[in-house]
Design a protein that fits this description.
This protein is mainly beta and 221 residues long. 10% of the residues lie in helices and 59% in strands. The chain has 2 domains: 105 residues, Lipocalin; 88 residues, Lipocalin (Beta Barrel), CATH 2.40.128. The chain contains 1 helix and 18 strands. The N terminus is likely disordered.
Length: 221
């Protein structure tokens, strides 16, 4: 009986240590050939010793997503985000420095969290190009018309951009230009814009492709 009590106590103590180690800020990236999303996980303790957490989808501009449920059983962490219809299950490393697991949302995606926070990238300024500025267009989708604005800025590291939608600002992963051909990749939403700059430099005639759906769009200053 004494040995049984001792083992039970050890198991409870182990769970408590993991719970203590898991608290803090974590960062991870879902990365596929067409998708790249940085996720920031913030875990705190509740007054009764339980766990509370929120999730930031950094590149999609969705911050403070409520985690509906979170459990830590020995080294297995599980949580659910109802707002995103997503779940996560991972194993906490023995040293408490990482969590290796799977994010499930539509399909399974490997996702490893490590302790820390994402740092904002600061680009040095450079001489503006002829396409610097805001370019807007109406995107006709099955759900209706959506207004998009690309904010293009030249920097010492090359062309950069952000995509502005109705409710968020999304970083553009890469901007490339070859003569009159302009291409912008937005891996945070698995999308690509590709088009031709008109000779007068006032419009870009192109296509916006997201999740296999290719839609024509005209961007104007």
């Amino acid at each position: 009986m004494g040995v049984r009590k001792l083992l039970t106590g050890a198991l409870l103590l182990g769970s408590s240590l993991y719970a203590q180690d898991i608290v803090g800020d974590w960062k991870g990236t879902i990365s596929t050939p067409t998708l790249e999303v940085r996720l920031a996980l913030h875990i705190t303790k509740t007054g009764n010793g339980g766990l509370h957490a929120v999730l930031d989808s950094v590149d999609q501009g969705a911050l403070g997503l409520a985690i509906s449920s979170i459990t830590l059983n020995s080294s297995t962490l599980k949580f659910t985000v109802d707002a995103a219809k997503g779940t996560y299950e991972g194993k906490v490393a023995p040293n408490g420095g990482s969590i290796d697991g799977i994010w499930t949302q539509g399909g399974p995606f490997p996702l490893k969290f490590e302790r820390g926070s994402f740092k904002a990238v600061v680009h040095k300024s450079a001489k503006p190009t002829d396409i610097d500025g805001a370019w807007s267009g109406a995107l006709a989708t099955r759900q209706g018309s959506e207004h998009l604005v690309f904010h293009i800025l030249n920097t010492a590291d090359g062309l950069t951009a952000t995509l502005q939608t109705k409710d968020r600002m999304i970083p553009v992963t890469s901007v490339t230009r070859n003569g009159s051909v302009l291409k912008m990749e937005i891996k945070a939403v698995g999308a690509v814009f590709a088009g031709d700059i008109t000779p007068d430099g006032k419009r870009v005639l192109g296509y916006y492709t997201e999740q296999g759906e290719k839609v024509p769009i005209v961007l104007t200053r």
